[in-house]
């Protein structure tokens, strides 16, 4: 029987559930396909550096698949609406009888898969969807009354209990298939409309499973034990930097979980606090995917907390642009935004700081920030990005209460005490000493800084403005 595995956000041969299942399902030829869908990527604001990362990983994946005698075919389908016809055509060309894929959970992704499944089944071709991207299928971790958890700590408790009982096993590497005489397609090095990022950005994120596993091993060996203490300091290598690999599926969450538990002597909950905290971060990833499925409105631009839809956001395009380009005059915000532009990634603590600054101090709608992040991030993921933005804007699940507004100066003094991170990204502040680095406006006067803007907003007054805007929601009819 000829089988096809349709790869999407699961760009790996190791521990790939759909690939392992397809390989085990028969003895005939096994083919793989990936769809090039530029109009869909544009509609989803996928960043050029993320598309480039996919292509670089696909080139590696194609080689790894070829070593197993599984050709990787590439097909163009401008949008996902075209996917059923394109896949059906491919199945006819190669007399494919069964298609395997790992489930994806966005609304569009689910609709696409339903349409593909229906088209294939109508043609007598079997469709198999597998749980792979997550440890827990969305909808499988529910409250006692059968609803979706809205509070992370309660969700995590149930996940811990389940994982302590049984760990999801790693999938076997597919055995080498018999040669089938079908050649794989060359992987393009670029796609029109998605400019190739700088060489320095590419070097930060080397492609391929081998590179991802090296990074996981280094993190597990050298940093994981101190993760709970070090993860909030952006100048330190305190976090794993694995998010691009997890988002593209070059690594699986099971591989991460097993690597973390190995550091903890195989123990689950108790043990090294770094390990426990990191596993908890992996569960945030699960939580936001659950939210995406349980509350599909969040992936359609709507607030999780409906009452916040009435908030009087400011229309302030100049302030938005200053934030986007790292020119707000608040060094920690600007340094973080320039890190994002230069590397396609930002430290988690700073994602929260800049998101709060945009939505509270500038009182600009979180949707603008969410879109800008998605257009820049190499790890852009609808569920995590939306969840992070709505948390920061106090419109989401588990939301930070609106009156708890991070002060970016206090955050900077706490998490970048020597200004090392700020100096790295703002060379114009290189000569400013430690005392003034986070608030150079205080230098003022003739000795101000000609190359660095004054703050575009007064932090205390803008905080009061945000509080008033949120309070006004309480008095809405
Ligand atoms: P580590 O600290 O090493 O964590 C390990 C893994 O756990 C991460 O790689 C990631 O897959 C997952 N994880 C960690 N924190 C979270 C979280 N809060 N929510 C969901 N998953 C998490 N993460 C993305 O993967 N894609 C996004 O588009 C994204 N956008 C965000 C936007 C905002 C406003 C905020 C506040 C957070 C966002 N995050 C996003 C979550 C988090 O910032 C990143 O996952 C993290 O910074 C990635 O770095 P790391 O791999 O070193 O993380």
Automatic annotation (TrEMBL):
SUPFAM superfamilies: Cryptochrome/photolyase FAD-binding domain, Cryptochrome/photolyase, N-terminal domain. Residues 1-135 form the Photolyase/cryptochrome alpha/beta domain. The record marks 313, 366, 389 as: Electron transfer via tryptophanyl radical. Signal peptide: none annotated. InterPro entries: Crypto/Photolyase_FAD-like_sf (IPR036134), Crypto/Photolyase_N_sf (IPR036155), Cryptochr/Photolyase_FAD-bd (IPR005101), Cryptochrome/DNA_photolyase_1 (IPR002081), DNA_photolyase_1_CS_C (IPR018394), DNA_photolyase_N (IPR006050), Rossmann-like_a/b/a_fold (IPR014729). One of its GO terms (molecular function) is FAD binding. It catalyses: cyclobutadipyrimidine (in DNA) = 2 pyrimidine residues (in DNA). This is Deoxyribodipyrimidine photo-lyase. It is an enzyme of class 4 (lyase). GO terms for biological process: photoreactive repair; response to light stimulus. Gene3D superfamilies: 1.25.40.80, DNA Cyclobutane Dipyrimidine Photolyase, subunit A, domain 3 (1.10.579.10), HUPs (3.40.50.620). Involved in repair of UV radiation-induced DNA damage. Catalyzes the light-dependent monomerization (300-600 nm) of cyclobutyl pyrimidine dimers (in cis-syn configuration), which are formed between adjacent bases on the same DNA strand upon exposure to ultraviolet radiation. Belongs to the DNA photolyase family. Belongs to the DNA photolyase class-1 family. The lineage of its organism: Bacteria, Pseudomonadati, Pseudomonadota, Gammaproteobacteria, Pseudomonadales. It comes from Geopseudomonas sagittaria. Keywords: Chromophore, FAD, Flavoprotein, Lyase. FAD binds at residues 227, 239-243, 278, 281-288, 379-381. Its EC number is 4.1.99.3. Its cofactor is FAD; (6R)-5,10-methylene-5,6,7,8-tetrahydrofolate. Binds 1 FAD per subunit. The keyword Amino-acid biosynthesis does not apply.
